[in-house]
Design a protein that fits this description.
One of its GO terms (cellular component) is plasma membrane. 75% of the residues lie in helices and 0% in strands. By secondary structure, it is mainly alpha-helical.
Length: 457
């Protein structure tokens, strides 16, 4: 199998460099998503009480989840900016900027005064900082994916490109674990007073570690080859939407189902539903957070398995298997949660992670193989950001509103099933391009539409 090459004067890529890229991708995205998910966990557990309490119990919860969703509306801005500069100036510099931006925003959330201290200015500042997190997340994923995918040998692209994907469940594991630890260190009212702030302030240390590791990684060989030929696209986003706008929509819909289901935990909804003292479950915060952390481990495992399987049977077939597993897990999810038995709640979350892993592990390689080299950063980043908006952005808020309106989680299950079925259709529309060369020499081949119903995009 062919492996990516840098410009002739740079020499071939070594296995040591590939391992360094994979390690940096895992660490960097873990730090980014830790920051992103620790906010979502806090939104489900404390932000309603601390920043939106005057709105009343139920409405405060919905407003808290709304701040989680608002950030998704700004992820396309991060994706547009990162795509433009990443396709013009390289993947590495964008990754450094997004890491720092996310860390600064997260740290300042931990320092915010509450509504009781400064009134309406508190939720306004909270929303501004969440928007900055959204911009950072919108630019982060595409760069990390391409650094991993474009360094990989073609026959192992799924496994290499899954490095940033693994960072997502690792980020959830870290965020849930730290939050759970703080419920032990600062129980009850102490958690509301100061315990929830500690996970945000820890971001400073994590950002320093991630920044150091990313500085030691070489630029993507595909971009170096494009730059060596002076073939960077001056307006990559314009070119992307001029020639590939249908592909952006289909790729976004492929991700939307996974995003909607995944944000039941990463968006804090399950945590809120299971710990609400006035709800049907009423579990303590600590055990629920540990259960979410445990499910993050199985999500990580099945993400890696899904990526490995996709290198063998193709991205599309792996996705279809994953969608079937996800649909099967959605039916018993809320009945298991509503038993108020922490072990059955954990079982429901673990079952969910099998399908989530099989529909998340192959995503990085799938996206990298869909778009031509000259607009790949823009295409990958924008498709991911739009898919996140269509799927996960307001999923926790929608779930909370559905339960408030119907008094049951049956409508939430129906909503999630519908989202997955949309993604199934989008997956069926794509041709599998496993192993397609990613370098600029193959731009013509890459530009042929992978959408099955058209000859050109």
């Amino acid at each position: 199998m062919s492996a990516p090459q840098r410009p002739e004067h740079s020499g071939p890529i070594t296995d040591r460099e590939r391992r360094r890229v994979v390690f940096a991708a895992v660490v960097g995205t873990t730090v980014e998503w830790y920051d992103f998910f620790v906010y979502a966990a806090a939104a489900g557990l404390v932000f309603g009480q601390l920043f939106f309490q005057p709105a009343g119990e139920g409405v405060a919860t919905i407003l808290s989840f709304l701040t989680v969703g608002i950030s998704f509306l700004f992820r396309p801005i991060g994706a547009f900016l990162a795509g433009h500069y990443g396709d013009r100036y390289g993947r590495r510099v964008v990754l450094m900027v997004t890491l720092v931006l996310m860390g600064v925003a997260t740290t300042f959330v931990g320092l915010l005064p509450t509504y009781a201290a400064i009134g309406v200015a508190a939720p306004v500042m909270l929303i501004v900082l969440r928007i900055l997190q959204g911009i950072s997340a919108g630019g982060e994923w595409g760069g990390a994916v391409l650094m991993a995918a474009e360094h990989a040998p073609s026959h192992k692209r799924g496994v290499y490109a899954a490095a940033p994907q693994v960072g997502v469940p690792l980020g959830l594991l870290l965020a849930s674990g730290v939050m759970a630890l703080m419920t032990f260190v600062a129980p009850g009212e102490q958690f509301l007073q100061w315990g929830w702030r500690v996970p945000f302030l820890l971001s400073v240390v994590l950002i320093l570690i991630g920044h150091y590791i990313r500085r030691r990684v070489e630029e993507s060989p595909v971009f170096l080859e494009i730059a060596d030929r002076k073939e960077q696209t001056k307006t990559p986003i314009v070119e992307l939407f001029r020639h590939h706008w249908k592909l952006v929509i289909v790729a976004a819909l492929v991700f939307s189902g996974n995003s909607a289901v995944g944000y039941m935990t990463t968006g804090g909804y399950i945590q809120n539903y299971a710990t609400n003292p006035d709800g049907p479950v009423g579990l303590d915060r600590g055990p629920v957070l540990w259960a979410v952390a445990g499910s993050a481990i199985t999500w990580l495992i099945f993400t890696w398995i899904g990526a490995t399987v996709s290198d063998r049977i193709g991205r599309r077939s792996t996705y279809l298997l994953g969608w079937a597993l996800l649909l099967g897990a959605l039916v018993p999810l809320f009945p298991l949660v509503e038993t108020a038995n922490i072990w059955l709640l954990l079982l429901g979350l673990v079952l969910l992670t099998i399908g989530l892993g099989f529909t998340y592990g192959p995503q990085a390689a799938l996206y990298a193989e869909l778009f031509p080299a000259s607009v790949r950063f823009s295409g990958v980043s924008i498709s991911y950001a739009v898919g996140a908006i269509l799927g996960g952005a307001f999923a926790p808020m929608i779930a909370a509103a559905l339960v408030r309106a119907t008094g049951s989680t049956t409508a939430v299950t129906a909503y999630l099933v519908a989202g997955v079925l949309v993604s199934v259709v989008a997956t069926l529309l794509l041709r599998d391009r496993k192993g397609i060369p990613l370098g600029p020499d193959h731009e013509a081949e890459q530009s042929v539409s992978p959408i099955r119903t058209t000859a050109k995009v």
